[in-house]
């Protein structure tokens, strides 16, 4: 009996009842108090679960953001707190000679990094990738997971193997091809990588200009700067990586 | 509730629901210092205050996103009273320690108390439901998680390798189990009586 009730609750809530069934059910609810209470609880739980799972990611993001703001706020507050309590005893700080030495070397380091920014660009300045996220929610394909993890951990040797199998399984997925080619590029299989980049940039895929950009980086890694520049010029203004491309172009000139 | 006028401070609630950093920051700047002072004057410290504030904000977030929380009183009073009561509750729980409460006389008018009670009931229910869900068998947990993530029951059935009819029936029975567990829980009856 109980089981039948729960099944009816679900059918009612998901609007799968016919008008007639619905009316009978509603009539039952209005006369049977324990059924109504049970239905209310069922409904509450249903809404709780819906929210819990649908907002799982958003909730995590919110908590993370909140934690950061909170931490910043409270660390600032504890600083002002100690400042006010130690107001009377002003601390005079004197630098010791070795502290000057440290300060000097830090300055030197900063200087060097600044200088490096103006020197010739290398592949290593550009091969930072956003984390790949291929798994659709709820989809638990192991191969996709492995590929994603290997790539995100910058284990490109494994990533290239995983992405190769993925491209074989689903040859129409241009996203797999793009990541396969990047993995190849990272492991110095330039010829194969460049060939894939080329096909991707000829097709009208969503990753067309991504492919051109990475193709240019590939040429940069191979120290074929002229070819790299030619590719960079193909990236139009409305493409996502236009700015990056223009900056790199300037540096290469 | 619906006939009551929504307070202009609803912007804080909406901002939390949208994870708007600017609004969260504003809440910390404007309303949190008062809470911290109160907790520190009443047997608490910095770290405890930080936790209480964070917990209360998460609760408001949940109520805002799940129940479309409508604020009918100033945010300041609502937020302060929530934090204060949560802190006093914590003190009560660990009352083997000596507790000093410097109770200032705050006149809290009815709309504020009503709003606060509403949020507290929501929070208690949320906590209870979390606990009950964890008590559910693994198979039910998995099925429900899939059901609400994927939405389409056909796809759920396919993902779990069961038939559509069975998946649907299972879903009702799993939520049914939770319903029964809740109804048998004294806490749930207590919440319902509030």
Summarize the structure.
Chain A is mainly α. Chain A has helices at 2-13, 19-31, 33-54, 56-85, 97-118, 142-152, 156-169, 174-186, 190-202, 208-221, 225-233, 242-252. Chain A is 73% helix and 0% strand.
Annotation keywords:
heterodimer; A: mainly alpha; Serine Threonine Protein Phosphatase 5, Tetratricopeptide repeat; 2 domains; B: 194 residues; mainly alpha
Textual characterization of the structure:
The complex is a heterodimer of chains A (253) and B (194). With 253 residues, chain A is mainly alpha-helical. Chain A has two domains: 2-54; 126-252, Tetratricopeptide repeat domain (Serine Threonine Protein Phosphatase 5, Tetratricopeptide repeat). Chain A is built from twelve helices and no strands. The radius of gyration of chain A is 30 Å and the shape is flat. Chain A starts with a helix and ends with a helix. Chain B is mainly alpha-helical and 194 residues long. Chain B has two domains: 10-108, Rna Polymerase Sigma Factor, Chain: A, CATH 1.10.1740; 136-193, no CATH class. The longest helix of chain B has 26 residues, at 110-135.
Tertiary shape of chain B: elongated
How big a fraction of the residues of chain B is strand? Answer: under 5%
Rg over C-alpha atoms of chain B, rounded to the nearest angstrom: 20 Å
Shape of chain A: flat
Indicate the structural class of chain B.
mainly alpha
Uncertain residue segments of chain A: 83-91
Helix content of chain B: over 70%
Helix content of chain A: over 70%
Q: Fill in the CATH topology of the largest domain in chain B.
A: Rna Polymerase Sigma Factor, Chain: A
Domain RNA polymerase sigma-70 region (chain B): 28-95
Organism (chain B): Ulvibacter antarcticus
Protein name (chain B): RNA polymerase sigma factor (Sigma-70 family)
GO molecular function (chain B): sigma factor activity
